[in-house]
């Protein structure tokens, strides 16, 4: 076997691949705040040099972009998947399926979604992320409105209030849910959906 034929070894030190850098960066951004975290902070947290970070990402903003894309791509895919699976059904059924899919994605990508929910539009990148999030929210609010119009949700509560209550509950999961706890994402999705749509009455 010649040198040219030998298998290439992966570049970088074990445990310091691009995915590891992204995970640790998201964790640090959530703990310290994105603006308050520097590449030097991240390098120190990983035990790397700054040049090792730049080997994977050209800038701190590029890391943030990857994190926000993870959250937004996952949520958009969940909404689209639920819509496809319930095509032709009543808006209520589509809304419920979409909520369950969104909760499952939030639970599975909790750190990235947490970071997304803390974005305040302080840069063009953050503004773009907020716009993408608004489009997803608008899709879900539209389903709420149609479910009310079809008579499957309470008409005495304005659709925009229902939407805020529902998605406020979903978003609040980032404050208390732990993926390594006793409730797996799929079970969490079913529990949240059950409480939101069936209430808290005892079931016999």
From TrEMBL:
Residues 15-75 form the HTH tetR-type domain. GO terms for molecular function: DNA-binding transcription factor activity; transcription cis-regulatory region binding. The keyword Methyltransferase does not apply. Coiled coil: none annotated. The keyword DNA-binding applies. Keywords: DNA-binding, Transcription, Transcription regulation. Residues 38-57 bind DNA. SUPFAM superfamilies: Homeodomain-like (SSF46689), Tetracyclin repressor-like, C-terminal domain (SSF48498). It comes from the Bacteria. It holds the Pfam family TetR_N. This is TetR family transcriptional regulator. It comes from Nocardioides silvaticus.
């Amino acid at each position: 076997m010649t040198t040219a034929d030998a298998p290439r070894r992966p570049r970088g030190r074990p445990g310091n691949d691009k995915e590891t850098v992204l995970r640790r960066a998201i964790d640090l951004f959530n703990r310290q705040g994105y603006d308050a975290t520097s590449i030097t902070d991240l390098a120190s947290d990983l035990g790397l040099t700054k040049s090792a970070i730049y080997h994977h990402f050209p800038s701190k903003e590029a890391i943030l972009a990857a994190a926000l894309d993870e959250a937004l791509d996952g949520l958009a895919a969940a909404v689209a998947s639920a819509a496809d699976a319930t095509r032709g059904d009543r808006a209520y059924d589509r809304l419920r399926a979409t909520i369950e899919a969104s909760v499952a994605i939030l639970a599975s990508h909790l750190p990235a979604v947490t970071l997304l929910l803390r974005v305040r539009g302080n840069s063009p990148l953050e503004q773009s992320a907020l716009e993408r999030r608004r489009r997803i929210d608008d899709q879900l609010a539209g389903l709420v409105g149609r479910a009310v119009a079809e008579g499957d949700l309470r008409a005495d509560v304005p659709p925009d209030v229902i939407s805020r209550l529902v998605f406020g509950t979903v978003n609040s999961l980032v404050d208390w849910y732990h993926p390594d706890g006793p409730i797996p994402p799929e079970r969490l999705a079913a529990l949240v959906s059950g409480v939101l749509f069936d209430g808290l009455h005892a079931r016999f």
